Amino acid sequence: MLRFLLGFVLAAAAGCAAAQPIADDNGAASLAACRPLWIGMRGVPEHRERAVRDTTFVCHARFLRPRPGPDDPHNGYLLSHDNVSKTPDWVIERLTRAGVSGNANRPGAAFKADPGVPPQGRARDDDYPPRQSGFARGHMAPSEDFNTSRQAMRETFFLSNTVPQRGARFNGSVWAALEDETRKAAIDRGAVYVITGPVRGPDGARSLTIAQSDNACGKSITLDGPDVAQFCQADSESYGEPCDEGGVGVPIGIFKIILTEDDAYAFVMPNRDHDRHGVPVRTYLEGFRVSIAALEAVTGLEFFRNIPEETGRRLIEQCAPGTLW
């Protein structure tokens, strides 16, 4: 089905390229390197309020050939950056069996501001609180997804690719497990497309609930995020103090969509400490399965816009059968 759908997407993606240039690492208009990602995800997601939002597209692909092919182990990653919250709306990757089967260790790279993002919307490393605060700089495209190349892994350490995420008991535990399961899915299936991003509370709310009746996966999910809504210049003891508008937004939840050849598996988890209480990790993760339609409702994003209507309705409105694993 993947090859069948691509024919419907090519023309739409070409049209989008003219209207929505993507910035590369140096801020220049550049679409070619990330084009496979654009096409593979059936066009980029769009926000319902895009006309009034301040966003920037960024393609991180400096470690790629000028025109990467479908058999290349890596296709970089593509993101849409919200310049108000200074965090991404979404980050797209294509994971392949070859690309995630390396043994490169995570580099000791420092997180850095992204020159492809306008200065007023650019997060800095000292905006984030120290590790002892319980927060991490949470990768949306994790460095381990590029573990055949330390250079490629370093390219994930732009702050345009991160959100403030609860640390050891979320980022370093159940969320890391979901990332690992996603790589296993790429190995088992040969290739998958992945889109990851934050859920922000409506009108500043720090909690929301996806009702069971609104989720085709049959689960009620509460996204109860941290009380703090944003951080700014928080690398000192002041990290708990409120800051004026212009800080780095703290999401109430984080989502991940894994698009296989036939289905779209989606998860959304609250940005808080998690305790499985002995529940097997896969069982625990299944408790956060969500339909694409439910994700659209809480993120304001529209996914898979450039595919045939019947297939689109199935991917968006239904819960993917079986499990990712």
Compile the SSE list and pairings.
Layout: H1 2-19, H2 35-40, E1 46-47, E2 55-60, E3 77-82, E4 87-96, E5 135-139, H3 150-154, E6 162-166, H4 167-171, H5 174-189, E7 191-199, E8 207-210, E9 221-224, E10 230-231, E11 248-249, E12 253-259, E13 264-270, H6 281-286, H7 292-299, E14 301-302, H8 309-317
Antiparallel strand pairs: 1-14, 2-3, 3-4, 4-7, 5-6, 7-12, 8-9, 10-11, 12-13
What's the short story on this structure?
With 325 residues, this protein is an alpha+beta fold. The chain has eight helices and 14 strands.
Which segments are poorly predicted (pLDDT under 50) over 5 or more consecutive residues?
A: 1-29
If helices are DSSP runs of H or I spanning 4 or more residues, what is the number of helices? 8
Rg = 18 Å
Question: How much helix, percentage-wise, in residues?
Answer: 10-25%
**Distance from first to last alpha carbon:** 20 Å
Which homologous superfamily in CATH is the superfamily?
Extracellular Endonuclease, subunit A
Q: What is the third-level CATH name, the topology?
A: Extracellular Endonuclease, Chain A
Strand fraction equals 15-25%
Q: Identify the overall geometry.
A: globular
Name of the level-1 CATH class: Alpha Beta
User: The biggest beta sheet, please?
Assistant: 6 strands, antiparallel
Content-based structural category: alpha+beta
Structure description:
The strands form five sheets. This protein has a six-stranded antiparallel beta sheet with strand order 2-3-4-7-12-13, with helices on both faces. Strands 1-14 form a two-stranded antiparallel sheet. 22% of the residues lie in helices and 22% in strands. The chain has 325 residues and is of the alpha+beta class. The protein has a single domain (2-317), classed as Extracellular Endonuclease, Chain A. It is globular.
